[in-house]
Design brief:
Strand content: 35-45%
Number of helices: 1
Structural class: alpha+beta
Mean pLDDT: 83
Helix content: 25-40%
Low-confidence stretches: 1-19
Largest sheet: 4 strands, antiparallel
Distance between the termini: 59 Å
Order of helices and strands: HEEEE
Radius of gyration: 17 Å
Shape: elongated
Length: 99
């Protein structure tokens, strides 16, 4: 019985990790895209990237930090993007740091 439970939890852990990795890729990509669509200004081409996404404490949203470079990388602004748990819809975007 112990062997069965250990095997079950190992398989569940692996599949959860794989799903989390896919979700993370989707969240980072979506957050950068949402911030780019929201932003107004002269940002560099391909200048938006998400560098941190985490599940909110209420476990109902994902909060991502996005960098946006301008002036050929001379300055970087920071945006916070709040997405739904599956990273398919944005709830809020805000400029949190301007350089």
């Amino acid at each position: 019985m112990k062997l069965f439970l250990m095997s079950f939890f190992s398989i569940a852990s692996i599949s959860t990790t794989a799903m989390a990795d896919e979700l993370a890729k989707q969240c980072y990509s979506k957050a950068a895209s949402v911030a780019e669509n929201f932003a107004s200004g002269n940002y560099d081409e391909d200048g938006f990237w998400a560098y941190e996404c985490a599940l909110a404490s209420n476990k109902k949203a994902v909060i991502c930090e996005v960098g946006a470079s301008k002036g050929d990388g001379a300055a970087t602004d920071t945006y916070r993007v709040v997405l739904n748990k599956t990273c398919t819809k944005a709830f809020r975007v805000e400029l949190t740091g301007e350089e």
